[in-house]
Amino acid sequence: MNLKRYHFPVMLTEVVENLGVTPGGRYIDCTLGEGGHSEAILEFSQPGGQLLGIDADHEAILVSKRRLEAYKDCSYLVNSYFSNISEIAHELKFVPVHGVLLDLGLSSLQLDFENRGFSFSEEEMLDMRFGLENDLTAIEIVNKFSEKKLSDLIFDLSQDPNSRIIAKAICANRPLNTSKELADLINSIKLKVRRKHHPATLTFQALRMAVNNEVNELNKVLSDAFSLLGIGGKLAVISYHSTEDKIVKNFINNGLSNCECPPLNFECNCNVSPYLKLINRKPLVPTIEEINQNPRSRSAKLRVIERIR
Ligand SMILES: C[S@@+](CC[C@H](N)C(=O)[O-])C[C@H]1O[C@@H](n2cnc3c(N)ncnc32)[C@H](O)[C@@H]1O
Q: Which residues contact residue 139 at a Cβ distance below 8 angstroms, ignoring those fewer than 6 apart?
């Protein structure tokens, strides 16, 4: 594959600083992508630093392997879904760790080069799988799900207020085989609510999330990654839309309160204390300069927490 340029790693400085990357540290990048964050983590953790990088997409592993060649003696790159983080880390005896990073969603490689069905403008088969061993593809959802199931899926995973109209149009125009056919169809419908971005954005997001089981993946990786941290270790998550961010916020809020009193208790008397603390009270967002240089970063939110017990 001939890449014109690598994916811009989003909020790179903020990630390295807030993860507290230090020489000799051991880190896991659960979303290796094109290795941009991993490269910086490896650079700032030398001498002695180590990195375990995971990605469901085998192309991401190939590209990162080349990019991280200089660090081949202190990095392990594994082609797998990140919900397997616990098994992978224990098998490699890569525990405990000083930091874990999750940079959710898609890379530029997948959007621009991989022909995976993510593009609005190219005739790509509606696949949308990150890992090709997965059975379910977007083509199956779009062409086989009932109108009600399709409409619920789009609404649940993207809160698109147009979900019913879109599901109806999809069912009336089957079969739809390519990403461009689907994007053009949605673009041609008179929608209730129009937003700034392409009208198919939320439908594509929902389909991608369903195909890659993203809600379950994220719920599982958050708790498994947290358990791999040593005390003082940090977990950094970059999310790109409200469905992802809500899951991250819920996980953090549980760890901040962690009260085990029965719901009807007037006062807390369980003495169970929080097991994490926030590194930043509010999520960090990209600077205007970064958004100008890389518009794909515009919706990013970085939340970082520290394990305290
Ligand atoms: C935004 S990109 C990461 C870019 C990377 N930080 C960089 O600097 O190049 C997200 C990556 O996560 C991967 N990914 C998404 N969900 C995954 C999952 N459940 N398990 C493993 N990899 C996943 C995608 O294949 C994609 O390569």
A: 117, 125, 126, 127, 176, 177
β-sheet bridge partners, residue 100: 28, 235
What are the CA-CA distances from residue 187 to residues 122, 171, 182, 201, 205 (Å)? 14, 15, 9, 10, 15
Q: Within the chain, which residue ranges are assigned CATH 1.10.150.170?
A: 135-211
* Ligand 1 atom nearest 81 alpha carbon: 20
pLDDT of 306: 97
The average pLDDT across 116-138 equals 93
Mean of per-residue pLDDT scores for the chain: 94
Distance 65 CA to ligand 1 centre (A): 15
Q: For 12-109+214-307, which CATH class?
A: alpha beta
* CB of residue 15 inside a 6 A radius of ligand 1: no
Distance from Cα 145 to the centre of ligand 1, integer Å? 27
Residues of the chain with CATH 3.40.50.150: 12-109+214-307
53 touches ligand 1 (CB under 6 Å): no
Cβ–ligand 1 distance for 36 under 6 Å, the answer yes
* Residue with CA closest to ligand 1 atom 14: 31
Cα 179 to ligand 1 centroid, rounded to whole Å = 20
Domain 135-211 has CATH 1.10.150.170: yes
pTM for the structure as a whole: 0.94
Strand partners, 55: 79
pLDDT (tens digit per residue) in 62-101: 999 999 999 999 999 999 999 999 999 999 999 999 999 9
**Residues composing the chain:** 309
* In the chain, beta strands by DSSP E: 26-29, 50-55, 75-79, 97-103, 229-239, 276-278, 301-307
Helix 201-211 / helix 179-188 crossing angle, nearest 10 deg: 140
Coil vs helix vs strand at 3: coil
Does residue 186 carry a pLDDT above 50?
Answer: yes
**Backbone dihedral angles phi then psi of residue 281, each to the nearest 5 degrees:** -60, -40
